[in-house]
Amino acid sequence: MTHHDVVIVGAGISGICAAIKLREAGITDVVVLEKGETFGGTWRANTYPGCACDVPSRLYSFSFAQRTDWSRVYAGQAEILAYVDGVAREHGVDRVTRFGVRMDSARWDGDTWQLETSDGPLSARFLISAAGPWDAPNIPDIPGLADFPGAVFHSAQWDHDYDLAGKRVAVIGTGASAVQFVPEIQPHVARLALFQRTAHWVLPKADHAVPGIEQLALRRVPFLSRGMKGAEYAAMELLGRGFRRPKPVMVAVQKVAEAYLRAVVRDPALRAKLTPGYTIGCKRILFSNNWFPALQQPNVDVLSTGVREVRGSVVVGADGSEAEVDAVILGTGFHILDMPVADHVHGADGRSLADVWAGSPEAYLGTVVPGFPNAFILLGPSLGTGHTSAFQIVEAATAYVVQAITHAHADGATLDVRPDILRAYVDEVQDELELTAYNQAQCNSYYRDVNGRNSFAWPWSSGALVRRFRRFDPTVFTVTHVSEEISA
């Protein structure tokens, strides 16, 4: 059986960052397992029309691999994927990545992690889950959907071989993906029935192509690029301040959203359908300049209802409304808080991470869980924000994980975070979340798990997040050395 110091599961931005930083720290016996055939994670999987980032490109990138030649203020999927892939290969991550290899299970045997993969067994001292919360599409259990005679696909599994031109299409879900792909397909389909269970607040997107002269100036004048990035970061942090303390920032933001909706959607009946019944902030805010115009086209029907069932080729809403269609596209998001990887990782007592969490995922600093020694999660529970870049969170968490592994590797130690430390941390997070927009009573977002607890959101600033991760403190762990295990 092959043994490694570190096995990383997933080659998206988290896995790439971990592999780079571990090797820079001198931990070179690292292998990355990636079930896909290329780097990129969610940016490899999501190829639907219009797929793009809703964080400015200058912020949505690694701090150690900045670029000044983004083609747009908000980069599209293909450009982001090319960037991520390029960074990985430039840093040699391709040489330690096994593509097309799926981790089927990981079990702690008291000394090492024993992995079963689609390409045979492995063992490792340290295990890093970098699968991320946007890995597994959420396919709703709708009666009759499996028997639908036409095409059915999720936005993250887009069927590019299916020609939508002239087809009658039902779109189920109106989240961030639908807001991007619906305006792209609307001009081509014969009819589009949009099943909207909940309206979302939408703000205009300050996006445009970056002219060549601006790219040249940014490349030749470094302080100009830093200044623009700083201004964008400050604007996003102001929005983040509103999420943490809704008044007065979010009150003002909601007025902007209301004004935008009134200005663009002239039909009072349609505007009423598109007006959320909750205060802005407790669900993800969406950004688009063409969502509302697309929904006003004569070939679009907005149905303010969830879906009850599918009968043959007819999609039936919860309110009894019907749409006969040729294709169904699911814009129903991902298994954010019930990540499938949790079913496959088994700790010291043999229980899976999913069993331990029992529907409410929790980890100290979103990264380590008691009973799962020498195991780490990137982009784990309670680290999500409604405003900042995932790259910043990933880099902060990775720095902490690298410190932990370096400490344990040098001392031949096993690290297991103390249960009392986790409990105090989770209580602190949950108490603080009660003051935020994320926990408003009027809506139920994907931030809340099956038990009704917000297990997704980080309640403080991104600066506070970086500071919390900066210093590794071994006293929060039960530290066991190899010699102690032998003497025991």
UniProtKB/TrEMBL annotation:
Lineage: superkingdom: Bacteria
Coiled-coil stretches: none
Transmembrane segments annotated in the record for this chain: none
InterPro entries hit by this protein: FAD-bind_Monooxygenase_sf (IPR051209), FAD/NAD-bd_sf (IPR036188)
Name of protein: NAD(P)/FAD-dependent oxidoreductase
Organism: Nocardioides jejuensis
